[in-house]
Amino acid sequence: MRLMVRLTCLVTLMLALGGCGYTTRSLYSSSIKTVAVPMWRNQTFRRQLEFKLTEAIDKNIEARTPFRLAPRSTADSVLTGTIVSVQENVLNSNFQTNLPQQTQVTIAVNFTWRDLRTGKVLEVRKYFAASASEVPAIGTQLSDAEQVVIERLARRIVDSMQKPW
After folding, report:
1. Cα-based torsion angle of the residue sequence 158, 161, 114, 149 in order, rounded to the nearest 10 degrees
2. Which one, of 36, 34, 44, lies nearest residue 129 by Cα?
3. Concatenated DSSP letters for 89-135?
4. C-alpha closest to that of 159 among 132, 138, 128
5. DSSP output for 143-161
6. Cβ-count burial of 11 within 10 angstroms (0-12 exposed, 13-18 middle, 19+ buried)?
7. How do residues 68-121 score in pLDDT, each as one tens digit?
8. Where does 19-98 have alpha helices with state H?
9. Pairing between strand 77-93 and 41-42?
């Protein structure tokens, strides 16, 4: 009787875990080992964003994926991209001073991740964007809000390198 109860519990547990979508497999392709990330291009008038975004992507790949960064000449794949738009919008202003109380910064990019061994495009995104709303405190600048968006955008770009479900 005890054996039957244990078997029933075990089968129930296996069915529950098997159908819930959890897996122990990697979220990233095991066929790709290395990624080259050349300096991204910048089609906007905001200077230095391409350096900051490329650095943030590199850090995210190293910290959150099994991929290693490598020069293009030896890499399995390459992630290239272009910053195509930077927008800053005032969400609301102080009624008395007309100074911005809350701003939103949005950065949009186009990017392609390509397998250099086969030439196959692994991921391509057009006008892929991230935004951040900031309430400027005394002493903060627009560059603070831009850095938040860059970090968020880099994280989303690296997330898009996961295998499709």
Report:
1. -30
2. 44
3. EEEEE-TTT--EEEEEEEEEEEEEEEETTT--EEEEEEEEEEEEEE-
4. 128
5. HHHHHHHHHHHHHHHHHTT
6. exposed
7. 999 999 999 999 999 999 998 777 766 676 666 677 889 999 999 999 999 999
8. 49-64
9. parallel
pLDDT in tens, 104-115: 889 999 999 999
Which residue, chain included where needed, has tokens 């603070």? 144
Domains present along the chain, CATH in parentheses: 29-159 (3.30.160.150)
| Residue 154 binned pLDDT confidence (cut-offs 50, 70, 90) | very high
Task: List the end-to-end C-alpha distance of the chain, in Å, as a whole number.
Answer: 41
Question: 113 is written with which tokens?
Answer: 């991740």
Distance CA(5)–CA(11), nearest Å, equals 10
Burial class (CB in 10 A: 0-12, 13-18, 19+), 6: exposed
Name, in order, each residue with C-beta under 8 angstroms of 121's C-beta and a sequence gap of 6 or more.
112, 113, 114, 115
